[in-house]
């Protein structure tokens, strides 16, 4: 749950990336093609285990399939450098057929030498969490009956079978996972640390399967567990931060191995190793995006690609309004605001390494690779930009504070919500308003008057009362707070007005005419 605060203190080298027509499905053989080209305070308004396990043995492909013939694939020769990161999310690798498609996509760019980052297959992370919660209360002898555990097991076994791989690729992992669930059942508790260890099995299995499959079709690949190759994090289980030491460590390991023996690295997304505990940590839900950008920066790669199940970053969440359109270009700042204010498509922290390393990020659709996707860079031409995307964050609690005694007071908001309210009530009248939603208008704040005029016109026509508005320090975000129940219709109405009505450009043109 997020919190919004209203203080009413009185007074208050870039080319389209499209696989060739020949790119596509592979089964048992590599195919090639050529690339067609290659928070916080805003003025007075505020919106506010054992990690060494499963180490890949030296000289092992990490997959149990050794010595497969090299048919081709991104044809690395000594001297060639790793060039891109290709991250595939859970939906992109949800089945054997999807893994074959993804292998086809990688092979469609033979001149690239990718580092592949994978998430867990499909909904495996959610299923692991549910299985863990059930294990707490079900008793050791009933662990084998937990529905989610059986779904996970069946999916992974089915996948290796369908890909023609030996079950030994994941056998030990599944065994270890069942032992862990029994341990949770025995202890009747699931700590944050154990939870991270539990969910790590998802990425550890998907990467082992995929690396084994690449090797089977003759493309040399090497599986890596991120926590074993230098992903050092804070010990904030469930939401760990990547520490600086990660960059040189990851670069040394991946680059060093590649130079000695060029095999496509297939790295677990989402996972790290706590610097104090040495235990497996996770980077927050959707954290594989951050793994990808961290590797991109560490190795100074040309581009970071995040392959999803949508045509790129869209003008709004397609689950809220299906007529969302692809946003072709974004800046790192826009993408960060979008993610931070609730767009599930990117991990909120993921743009930081890309921005620091000035490495373009491309969001692509693994189900529709010909779609151009979204290109995210440091800068873009904002001249014609009005609104870029509309983002919704629901279930927000708003604090409405009226006081004359708060000027010069700061720091109180950093504490817990209950404490904050208690503290504030000493000096102000506080209303805690729940079930609110933040609608963020990501766009060109230099056109804020135009955007807000249009937005308020739409909202007034829809009979919606805006309860707070925040612009503040961000150059790309204007936030409105409305009641939760009104938020989705608002998104739809705003989307229609900004992205489906023809008159927006005309307004820009009129404005340009007035200015120029
Ligand atoms: N503005 C947006 N643009 C694109 N997708 C969005 C947006 N807001 C929400 N989404 C959702 O994000 C999903 C993609 O993100 P995610 O599930 O994390 O991808 P993956 O697991 O493939 O990395 C889409 O399927 C879509 O439902
Ligand atoms: N599997 C993890 C990490 C991740 O990034 O997944 P995805 O790329 O499918 O959002 C999760 O579900 O959170």
From TrEMBL:
<keyword id="KW-0067">ATP-binding</keyword>
<keyword id="KW-0808">Transferase</keyword>
<keyword id="KW-0028">Amino-acid biosynthesis</keyword>
<dbReference type="GO" id="GO:0009088">
    <property type="term" value="P:threonine biosynthetic process"/>
</dbReference>
<dbReference type="InterPro" id="IPR005260">
    <property type="entry name" value="Asp_kin_monofn"/>
</dbReference>
<protein>
    <recommendedName>
        <fullName>Aspartokinase</fullName>
        <ecNumber>2.7.2.4</ecNumber>
    </recommendedName>
</protein>
<comment type="pathway">
    <text>Amino-acid biosynthesis; L-lysine biosynthesis via DAP pathway; (S)-tetrahydrodipicolinate from L-aspartate: step 1/4.</text>
</comment>
<dbReference type="InterPro" id="IPR018042">
    <property type="entry name" value="Aspartate_kinase_CS"/>
</dbReference>
<dbReference type="GO" id="GO:0005829">
    <property type="term" value="C:cytosol"/>
</dbReference>
<keyword id="KW-0547">Nucleotide-binding</keyword>
<dbReference type="GO" id="GO:0009570">
    <property type="term" value="C:chloroplast stroma"/>
</dbReference>
<dbReference type="InterPro" id="IPR045865">
    <property type="entry name" value="ACT-like_dom_sf"/>
</dbReference>
<dbReference type="InterPro" id="IPR002912">
    <property type="entry name" value="ACT_dom"/>
</dbReference>
<keyword id="KW-0791">Threonine biosynthesis</keyword>
<dbReference type="GO" id="GO:0004072">
    <property type="term" value="F:aspartate kinase activity"/>
</dbReference>
<keyword id="KW-0418">Kinase</keyword>
<dbReference type="Pfam" id="PF00696">
    <property type="entry name" value="AA_kinase"/>
</dbReference>
<dbReference type="InterPro" id="IPR001048">
    <property type="entry name" value="Asp/Glu/Uridylate_kinase"/>
</dbReference>
<dbReference type="InterPro" id="IPR036393">
    <property type="entry name" value="AceGlu_kinase-like_sf"/>
</dbReference>
<dbReference type="GO" id="GO:0009089">
    <property type="term" value="P:lysine biosynthetic process via diaminopimelate"/>
</dbReference>
<dbReference type="InterPro" id="IPR001341">
    <property type="entry name" value="Asp_kinase"/>
</dbReference>
<dbReference type="InterPro" id="IPR042199">
    <property type="entry name" value="AsparK_Bifunc_asparK/hSer_DH"/>
</dbReference>
<dbReference type="GO" id="GO:0005524">
    <property type="term" value="F:ATP binding"/>
</dbReference>
<dbReference type="InterPro" id="IPR054352">
    <property type="entry name" value="ACT_Aspartokinase"/>
</dbReference>
<feature type="domain" description="ACT">
    <location>
        <begin position="440"/>
        <end position="515"/>
    </location>
</feature>
<comment type="pathway">
    <text>Amino-acid biosynthesis; L-threonine biosynthesis; L-threonine from L-aspartate: step 1/5.</text>
</comment>
<comment type="similarity">
    <text>Belongs to the aspartokinase family.</text>
</comment>
<dbReference type="Pfam" id="PF22468">
    <property type="entry name" value="ACT_9"/>
</dbReference>
<dbReference type="GO" id="GO:0009090">
    <property type="term" value="P:homoserine biosynthetic process"/>
</dbReference>
């Amino acid at each position: 749950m997020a919190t919004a605060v209203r203080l009413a203190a009185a007074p208050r080298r870039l080319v389209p990336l499209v696989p060739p027509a020949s790119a596509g499905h592979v089964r048992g053989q590599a195919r090639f093609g050529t690339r067609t080209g290659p928070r916080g305070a805003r003025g007075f308004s505020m919106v506010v285990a054992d990690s060494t396990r499963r180490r890949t043995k030296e000289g092992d492909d990490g997959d149990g399939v050794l010595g497969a013939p090299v048919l081709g694939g991104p044809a690395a020769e000594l001297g060639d450098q790793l060039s891109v990161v290709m991250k595939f999310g859970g939906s992109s690798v949800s089945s054997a057929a999807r893994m074959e498609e993804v292998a086809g996509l990688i092979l469609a760019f033979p001149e690239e030498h990718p580092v592949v980052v994978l998430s867990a297959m499909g909904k495996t992370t959610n299923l692991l969490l549910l299985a863990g919660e059930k294990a707490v209360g079900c008793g050791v002898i009933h662990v084998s009956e937990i529905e989610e555990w059986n779904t996970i097991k069946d999916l992974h076994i089915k996948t290796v079978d369908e890909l023609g791989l030996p079950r030994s690729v994941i056998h030990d992992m599944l065994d270890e996972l069942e032992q862990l669930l029994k341990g949770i059942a025995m202890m009747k508790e699931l700590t944050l640390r154990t939870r991270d260890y539990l969910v790590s099995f998802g990425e550890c299995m998907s990467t082992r399967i995929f690396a084994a499959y690449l090797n089977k079709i003759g493309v040399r690949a090497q599986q890596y567990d991120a926590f074993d190759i230098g992903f050092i994090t804070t010990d904030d289980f469930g939401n760990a931060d990547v520490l600086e030491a990660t960059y040189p460590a990851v670069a040394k390991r991946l680059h060093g191995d590649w130079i000695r023996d060029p095999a496509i690295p297939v790295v677990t997304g989402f996972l790290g190793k706590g610097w104090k505990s040495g235990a497996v940590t996770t980077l927050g839900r959707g954290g594989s995006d951050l793994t990808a950008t961290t590797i991109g920066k560490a190795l100074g790669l040309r581009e970071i690609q995040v392959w999803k199940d949508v045509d790129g970053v869209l003008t709004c969440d397609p689950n809220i309004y299906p007529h969302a359109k692809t946003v072709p270009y974004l800046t790192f700042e826009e993408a960060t605001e979008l993610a931070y204010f609730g767009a599930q498509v990117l991990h909120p922290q993921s743009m930081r390494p890309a921005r620091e390393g000035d490495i373009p990020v491309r969001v692509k659709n693994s189900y529709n690779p010909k779609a151009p996707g979204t290109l995210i860079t440091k800068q873009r031409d904002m001249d014609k930009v009005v609104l870029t995307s509309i983002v919704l964050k629901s279930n927000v609690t708003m604090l409405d504070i009226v006081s004359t005694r708060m000027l010069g007071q700061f720091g109180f908001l950093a504490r817990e919500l209950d404490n904050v309210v208690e503290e504030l009530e000493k000096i102000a009248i506080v209303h805690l308003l729940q079930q609110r939603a933040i609608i963020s208008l990501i766009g060109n704040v230099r056109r804020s008057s135009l955007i807000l005029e249009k937005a308020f016109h739409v909202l007034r026509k829809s009979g919606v009362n805006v309860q707070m508005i925040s612009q503040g320090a961000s150059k790309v975000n204007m936030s409105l707070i409305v009641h939760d129940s009104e938020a989705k219709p608002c998104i739809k109405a705003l989307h229609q007005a900004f992205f489906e009505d023809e008159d927006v450009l005309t307004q820009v043109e009129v404005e340009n005419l007035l200015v120029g």
